[in-house]
Every structure is written in structure tokens, then in C-alpha cells.
Records
---
Amino acid sequence: MRANLHASVADRLGGVGSRYTPGRRLVVEVLEEVGRPIEVEEILAVRPDLAQSSVYRNLVVLERADVVHRVVTGDGVGRFELSEGLTEHHHHAICSVCGSIRDITVPPRLERDLQRIVRELGRRIAFSTASHRIDLMGTCSDCARPDPGRP
Amino acid sequence: MRANLHASVADRLGGVGSRYTPGRRLVVEVLEEVGRPIEVEEILAVRPDLAQSSVYRNLVVLERADVVHRVVTGDGVGRFELSEGLTEHHHHAICSVCGSIRDITVPPRLERDLQRIVRELGRRIAFSTASHRIDLMGTCSDCARPDPGRP
DNA sequence: CTCAGTGCAAAGGATTTGCATGCCG
DNA sequence: CGGCATGCAAATCCTTTGCACTGAG
């Protein structure tokens, strides 16, 4: 399924009149490897050869082509992941302490229920729903651990 | 239920050792009147007498006291609303075109299903879930309307 | 008197943009 | 060639912070 990813990406980019350039491929590869929503800073840390502005610009293009998806948490910093269809459908557990995001996949049975609920909601409010997102907000295991620095 | 709001707010503020000052009350009143998540800019537009920095600072305090809740959408601009318990439990329909957020309340039957799903998810991943959030992402009716500016 | 709260202006950090250059179709 | 893509640096935007002042307890 790996080879297929880049084909799909190229395809979606073509759909909006953009090319799949080396720089964009590097970004996609980083997102694929990391497998969770990450900040631009993290992308640059992995690939210092990329120009910051190009990464930002490419993320805009990739987002418009629906290759990546932007997630924003309470800390106001944008984080990016591969879009639905390029990865498994999933949701997020967002830590309100450190802002980290963990992907969670929902068991099929529950996911089916979710789909039903979301569909019904969209119908009720005449809102053209492209996708849904369930975020659990709370405290991740790291931050839940009692702080050794303060008794 | 209106008088009760400010009592609750004062209470929650007291809980974190802060006072319910006039400036904070104004912010809360704006949020109450508007009834949907709004940006600082919008708060200042309604109450130009408030100092920008004070609004930001007070929102931090109000957030820590769990009086307001920060919602961040794809555009990276923070929006604020009154917290759960001060308003009805609700979710959001986020327009991916203009970034606007519309509150939606979920019928009790569906909400009950949601609660069950969320609870089960949290249990599965050992994540201490404080709250959940269901966002519908799509296009609001305003943005869905064909753009008159471009044939 | 003391300390949280306020206002103004300046700083900060993430993201965007202007401009010249490089490169694919 | 023409236009998208890139890099660098400067600009912009939202948000935070420093500092002096005010007010409540």
C-alpha cells in the first residue's frame, strides 16, 4: 500500500493543478513515517534541507489538494497529518496539558454508530458535512504522571 | 438562569483565586450574548472600551477557571465560548471555507450514544478523558451559496 | 500597604508574502 | 519560453509580556 500512497498524492495534486515535486514528496514522507499530526518545526527538524517557507507553502497546496489535514489544538500551533483516504480513518486524543495528539482508531462497531450519528446531525442542520472529527480532550499518560518537580 | 451564570462564574474564578472584575464580566457578557465561539477581535469590536491585552489576559484566567473554553479552527485564530456547565452541552459545525463555527446541540438519544462511545474509547486507550468534542467539518450555507463574484 | 488587575507599547512566535532565481512541461 | 516551485529575508498577524499605575481588601 506504500507505493499507492504517492500515486494517490500525485493524483490529488494533479486534481488541483499542482505538481508532486521533490519537496512535497519529502513532506509527505515525513508525515507518513511519523504517523501522527506534527508541527512544521518537527518537519524541519527531520529534514533541515527543506526551506521553512516552502514547507508552509507546500502544506497550503497539499491541504487544498486534500493530501494533508491541519489539526489545531489549544496551543494555537498547527499540526499536520495525511488526510482521510490516505491513512486509516481515525480520531484524536488531545492532551490539554502538553498539546500532544495521539491517533486513535475506533472499533468498527462504534465507528458505524458514529457515522450514523454524524449523518443524522448534518441532516438536521442543513450543513454540508465533509467529514467529522471526534476529539477526546484530557490528560495523556505522560502528563497524568505526578510531577516530580512539585511535591 | 441568567443571574445564576454570573454567580457560577464568580464561583469558578474564586476557585482559582481570582476575582470577578468588571472587565471579566464584560467579556463573559459578550460571550453569553453572542452564544457562539468568537475571536478576541470580535469581543473588542463589541466592547471597544476594553484593552486588547486585558482581554487576552482575562481569557487566560477565565480559561484556567474553566469559565471559557478555547476553540481553534483551521485558520489558527483562537475563538472563545462559555464552558460546559455554563451553557448547554453542544458540539460544532466548522466551515472549512470561512472558519466560522456554529453550535449544534445533539438530541438526547444521539448524545447518549455519543457518551457511550466516548466512554468506551477512553477506556480502551487508557486516556483520562475530561471532555469530548464532535466537530462536523464542511461548508456552511453561506459559503455553499455560489459565489456571485465569480461566474 | 499589598497584590491582583489594567492599559499601553513593545516583544515574540508562527505563518505569510515579495522578489529573484530555478526548473519542468 | 511560460508558469509553477523554491529560497531567502522581510513583513504580518495573533498573542504574550514588561512596566508603571490603579483599585480593592
Note: The interface with chain A takes residues 70, 72-74, 76, 78, 91, 93, 96, 102, 104, 106-107, 110, 113-114, 117-118, 120-122, 124-141, 144 of chain B (CB under 8 Å).
---
Amino acid sequence: MRASAASEIATVDRILDVAERLVQTLGFNGFSYGDVAGELRITKAALHYHFPTKGALGSRLVARYGEAFRGALAEIDAAESEARRKLARYARLHAGVLRGNRMCLCGMLAADQATLPREMRARVRAFFDANEAWLGGVLEHGRRAGELRFDGAPREQARVLLSALEGAMLVARSYGDVARFTSVAERLLAALAAD
Amino acid sequence: MRASAASEIATVDRILDVAERLVQTLGFNGFSYGDVAGELRITKAALHYHFPTKGALGSRLVARYGEAFRGALAEIDAAESEARRKLARYARLHAGVLRGNRMCLCGMLAADQATLPREMRARVRAFFDANEAWLGGVLEHGRRAGELRFDGAPREQARVLLSALEGAMLVARSYGDVARFTSVAERLLAALAAD
DNA sequence: GTCTATAGGTGGATAGAC
DNA sequence: GTCTATCCACCTATAGAC
């Protein structure tokens, strides 16, 4: 391994980038090694050198996606202190994914759940867990601060929010209409406002 | 075509039953003619006699599912007059689908959207449209009657509800935990209560 | 790290006998 | 309406040369 110039991207990452987009648009059973290889102008055999099986590729995909998301959540925490602004940025995170007709990687894989290797399934759940935990923290803090109003446990309310946003992506994508998502997201957040 | 005894089920319907379950659990790209044929102990060629292409089978599947759902909504309208009770039964409809690890057929197909033939995509949207229209009507009526409280257009609120329920199914299925769905559904309906 | 070549299987779909 | 037989494209994955 040598030092690489800034403009170069390691083959592994280029594979992950293409595969990620394909999974998010077509589903885990809707893309093939051939699709990825063809787009990168390498052979399927070269792909297998980097990722011996499709499941291994999928696992790395979910792991990387989860890390990136956790990074984005940390950025939100660093940039915003108000709960309502944090939630608004969280929703915008998903809206960003939706542009380009992409579904949340883990929402898509949740649909393919029954056909995935064990490890991928576990990682998808871990992604949801992390999102719920973060949302739960924001909700709890926001309610304590008097910014937000809702009944019951923050963690339960977090599940409502996560489910609703994943579903809003799913449905909005059927219409190719991001506004459908943002409209739902705005209503969900407005319902939590204390004023 | 001859009169058939009550216990007999036409081959076409048995095909649709099996295919429906497979799509709801595995996704449209996660099942094959071979799977259906194997389960019914007929050959793939026999399947092609009834449904020349996979897309034709899929279209019939969505059409039938939509009709069944409309029937269920009509039943709810006939049995209940209060908006809150209608919505509760609507949520129970989805909970029933979720048992047996099934996803809403159209929610699943929404994930597979990009890989579907045009006609199937249109039928999936029609399903969502019909659900939104029915929910919008119930919400509007419920608010007028003072049973429900929410801001904005009923049709917009209907989209929130539909998205959230679809998403709740998607996420709950990852955990194999129907309670996750019912908990979210109850919170959504409680948030609409006027009291 | 990428290639050619290929294995071994399965995908959807068709032809023609019964 | 169901079968056998078959087509061809594609799938994931491996072996071995460069």
C-alpha cells in the first residue's frame, strides 16, 4: 500500500460506492457483481478478489453506511444545540439520500431481510438501534428543555419517528417525488413542537 | 370452466396465493417461477401457461391485493362509524399482514420499484392513492365530528399515517417483532385523538 | 491486483407432446 | 392444463496466468 494522491480513490472504495448506489436503488437482489464490474470496467473476478462473496460486500456496505451516518449525527450534535434543529437536520439527512431515487440503504435491506446472510441482518438492526438511540436522546433532551412535547418514553417516540421517515422514503420514491417525503417529515416534527 | 366444489381452489388462485406470500417475504427479485412451481408441485412451464411473464404475474398480484384491501376498507366502513375506531381497525389490518413475517405487498414492491415493469409500478401507486384517499376521508370526517385533532389538510395527514405504518412494518420485520409495529401504530393514533 | 477462462447452477421463457 | 425438454442469458464463485 502506497501513499495515494488526493484525487485517487482506492478500488475498494469505488466498488463500495457503486454497489451502495445499486443496492439503494435496485435492492440487494436487484444488482449483480456483473453490474458493478461493468460500471467500473473491471472484471467480476477482480471484484471477488476484494470481496470474496456478495454477503461480504453487503456487510462492508452496511458497516460503512452506519459509520457515515454516525459521523453525520456527530456533526449535527456539534453544530446544533436545539432539539428541534437537530431533528430538522436529521430529516434533511434522509431527504438528501432520497434525491437520486435512493432509498435508505438499511431501509432497503430491511425489505430484503429474509434473503440476507445473518451478519448483514444484524448490522441492519444495529443501524436502526443507533438511530433510535440518537433520536431518543434528542427527544428526551428536547422535552426536558421544554422545546418538545410528546407522551411516553423518548425511545418509543424515537421509533415512531424512525419508522415514519423510513416509510416516507419508501412511499415517496414510488412517486419519484421528494416533496412527498419533506412534507411528511415537516408534519412529524411540527407535531412535536412545544408551542 | 365448470362449477367447482367449495373445497377446490383454482390453480390460478393457488399460484397467486403462493406468489403473493413469496413476494411479501422475499421481494419481487427474491423469488422465482421455480419456487412457486416447486411449492405447488407443478412445473415452471405450467406456470407460464397461466402467467406468460413474471411481470404479468406481478400485475395480477397487485391488482388482487388492491381489491382485497378495498374490500377490507369497505367492511370497516360498514362496521364502524367512529373515525378513531376505523383507524384502529385499519392499523390492525396491517398488523395482520405483518404476522407471518410478511410485509405489505405494495410496501415491498415500492422497495423493488426501479426493477418493476411500468404497469406494476402504476398499480402500486394506485394502491397508495386508494389508501390515502380512504384515510383522508376518515380523517376529514373525524375532525369535523370533533373526534380527531390535527393541523392542515386531511389528505396530507393521511400521507403521514400511511408512510408511518408502511415504515413501521418495514422496521418491525427486521426485528421479527410485531409489537414494534403495534406500539408505533398506537402512538400515531393516540396523537390524533381530540381529548 | 487484474485478467481469461470456466465451472456449476438458476433465471425467465418457449416448443411441442399428451 | 400439465408435462418433458430445451434455450440462452445471467448468476456467484473459483483456478491459475500475468
Note: Residues 9 and 15 of chain A are 10 Å apart (CA to CA).
